[in-house]
Amino acid sequence: MQVYRLGMPAVLAILLFSRSLLTPGSAHADWSASDLSGKRVHLRDYRGRVVVLNFWATWCGPCNAEMPLLVDAEKEYGSRGVAFIGASLDDSKTKRNVPEFISKYRVGFPVWLGATGDDLARLGMGEAVPATAFLDRDGRVIARVSGQIRRPELRERIEWLLGERVSAPPAPFVSHMEQEK
User: Is 146 helix (H, G, I), strand (E, B) or coil?
Assistant: First the structure.
């Protein structure tokens, strides 16, 4: 599996923010970006809902492969109150490709622009995209998956967050970052 790593600035950001990284369930996650119309949007506005926050970029092969899974999951779980948010790491050179990407995959959930490697670091997401965070109704990061998520991992985390939570929680962090050969 191919994983796209962020550059040295992102790695340094992870080290600099390592003391402030959110451990699952430890604190309320907050983050803001811009929606497609340029309006400032905030993660805290989704408190009260389970949130699947997916970081991706148009130039990322695994992100392209993963997006249909997220679109299908939103169709299944959106009616159950789960909010899906796509956070694009496209920069000024590639963000013009975002509308085509959204259209190609028929993304119906909110897409936010302006995500950075620093944002991944603050949420304890690692250094690669795609990366997905699962937030509970209180806005706490409960689980994270670094690299391309698998359908069973996605379903397990969402079902646990929607359920009674009497069973053991899913693994708080899963990494699919494999060394490129």
Answer: strand
Residue 23: the pLDDT is: 45
pLDDT digits (tens, 9 = 90+) for 8-42: 444 433 333 333 334 445 467 889 999 999 999 99
pLDDT tens-digit readout, 77-111: 999 999 999 999 999 999 999 999 999 999 999 99
Mean pLDDT of all residues belonging to the chain:
87
Domain presence at residue 181: no
Cis geometry, peptide bond prior to residue 152 (ω within 30 degrees of 0): no
- The sign of the torsion formed by the CA atoms of 4, 64, 177, 89 equals positive
Task: Give the β-pairing of 131-135 and 51-56.
Answer: antiparallel
Give the pLDDT confidence score for residue 85 in this predicted structure. Answer: 98
Q: Does residue 170 belong to any structural domain of this protein?
A: no
Give residues with Cβ within 8 angstroms of 148, minimum separation 6. Answer: 1, 3, 62, 63, 65, 66, 130, 176
**Count of structural domains within the chain:** 1
> Residue 100 sits in which domain range?
4-163
Establish if 173 belongs to a structural domain.
Answer: no
Neighbours of 115 (CB within 10 A): 23
Q: SS3 for 118?
A: helix
